[in-house]
């Protein structure tokens, strides 16, 4: 597995999409679920790229190339997990990066975990103003909301966003993920229905549990 990670890291930094596509075709039959592929391969690649950038061993341009390359690979994977025939009764989630948060790759992984669990997903992307989030919530009325935040200076903005969301929809489940979740005690915010997600396993557990709760109980005549 380490050999695969090193090879993919090198290709991502080089922005070599043809080779990445070839690598994907050769390895698409690996006995890994989507979440295992993300946790065991893509996350280590992203962490390796981040470490190289922090040590000034790659340039900003190469870091951007690597991010775009991993995004490309995730797009290839996404074709396998999208469920076009989603039922209207399936639970829904609205995902976005807090305003000021530019990195959305991790949140795209989260969106794929929910899609694989047969949720309806709206992905708003990076740096979304809170007022636009509230407008979308009012219009779409999602069952859950997921927020990504990695930068600690954005914590005051996160608290304000959580307050506005809870005022708009008091009973909605709010998931918060990103690097700051493991660094700060966000429970001090005192806002109900907030779930702190430290990794994709936490996301998968929430998605599956909520999906099971949303399934209607069939009578014997309906089965």
TrEMBL record:
One of its GO terms (molecular function) is methionine synthase activity. It comes from the Bacteria. Keywords: Cobalt, Metal-binding. CDD domains: B12-binding_like. Residues 90-220 form the B12-binding domain. It holds the Pfam family B12-binding. GO terms for cellular component: cytosol. One of its GO terms (biological process) is tetrahydrofolate metabolic process. InterPro entries: Cbl-bd_cap, Cobalamin-bd, Cobalamin-bd_sf, Met_Synthase/Corrinoid, Meth_synthase_dom. SUPFAM superfamilies: Cobalamin (vitamin B12)-binding domain. This is B12-binding domain-containing protein. It comes from Rossellomorea vietnamensis.
């Amino acid at each position: 597995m380490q050999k695969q990670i090193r090879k993919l890291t090198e290709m991502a930094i080089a922005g070599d999409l043809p080779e990445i596509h070839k690598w994907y075709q050769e390895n698409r039959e690996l006995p890994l679920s989507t979440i295992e592929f993300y946790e065991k391969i893509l996350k280590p690649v992203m962490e390796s790229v981040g470490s190289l950038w922090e040590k000034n061993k790659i340039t900003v341009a190469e870091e951007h190339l690597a991010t775009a390359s991993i995004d490309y690979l995730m797009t290839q994977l996404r074709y396998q997990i999208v469920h076009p025939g989603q039922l209207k009764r399936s639970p829904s989630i609205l995902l976005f990066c807090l305003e000021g948060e530019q990195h959305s790759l991790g949140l795209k992984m989260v969106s794929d975990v929910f899609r694989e669990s047969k949720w309806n997903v709206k992905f708003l992307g990076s740096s979304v103003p809170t007022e636009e989030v509230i407008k979308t919530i009012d219009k779409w009325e999602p069952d859950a909301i997921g927020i990504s935040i990695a930068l600690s200076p954005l914590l005051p903005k996160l608290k304000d966003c959580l307050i506005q969301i809870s005022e708009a929809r008091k009973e909605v489940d709010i998931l918060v993920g990103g690097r700051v979740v493991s660094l700060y005690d966000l429970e001090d915010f005192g806002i109900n229905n907030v779930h702190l997600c430290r990794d994709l396993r936490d996301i998968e557990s929430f998605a599956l549990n909520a999906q099971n709760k949303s399934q209607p109980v069939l009578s014997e005549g309906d089965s």
